[in-house]
Write the structure tokens for this entry.
Amino acid sequence: MLILSESQIRSLYSMSDAIRDLEEALTYYEEGKVVNPHRTVINFPEKEASALYMPSSMAPVGKSAVKVVAIFPHNPSLGRNTTQGVILLSDTDNGEHLACLNASYLTRLRTGAVSGIATKHLAKKDATSVVVIGTGAMAEEQLQAVLEVREIKEIMLFNRTREKAIAFEKRIPELSPRYSGSITIIDGPDEAVAKADIVICATRSAAPVFSGQALQLGTHINGVGSYLPHMQEVDEETILKCSKIVADTIEGVKDEAGDFIIPVNKGVWSFDELHGELSELVAGKKGGRDKDEEITFFKSVGTAYFDLAVAAAVYEKAIKNGVGTEVEV
């Protein structure tokens, strides 16, 4: 079995690689070539934490995988990472366990990549400004993906702890060396949302992080932070203003996305109003943005075959380049 660390994965695999490989995986999913059982979540309420177990297989690549990821929000105070995970990659021809990969970075990378794909289909072609609300680790790849698919000239950053926004600003040149536009740290999200073409929400908030009243026509929103039924990054007004709402998987958001579950339980919105899944946009079965004035929203809670797609691609690159540590199991 090949063991691959985060630093080894980073040396092999880029955001552009992930966007390409996930577009292919989304097409396979739409063609019925992916087995993707619903994930199992074990919650630890006393820690406000959870562990996720996520299996999948993809016939065209001949691989299956299971990811185990633990999310413990209070870990940074103990000097540990919030998110820790591994992906076990197996061969579907003979059952051989091929690799064990660090999953923390790959989770952030694939989440960013699917948001980038959604942005390609749903944001205005001439979008030039983006606001990042929540500047934790997940936000890095979210911003990186948007910079990959749109010519952004203005980045605005907001975090409840301003020092984290300052630290994030310093990392942007490393994340996207080609970026030469402005970067501004703002005191309140609504002022930035009011002039942003693209809004990135990457928080674990249980309450909306901006007011729907602040949204301008033509805005696209990527929401990736809230992943449990009680979490709500966007308010009901935002949901009701959107002309197209797209999910990574409808099954996933029905079970886990408080952004939708809360307004559904209030009776102000219905899952029937979803425009569709991202795979349908990639496969051309559903359209993306039709008009510049539309407000669009992509919601991602994550799903196992996204992890499989990037893990399989990293494994192939690692074998080709002789990267990783072989161990007997």
Notes: The CA atoms of residues 209 and 279 lie 28 Å apart. The chain has eleven helices and 16 strands. The first strand starts at residue 2 and ends at 4. The radius of gyration is 19 Å.
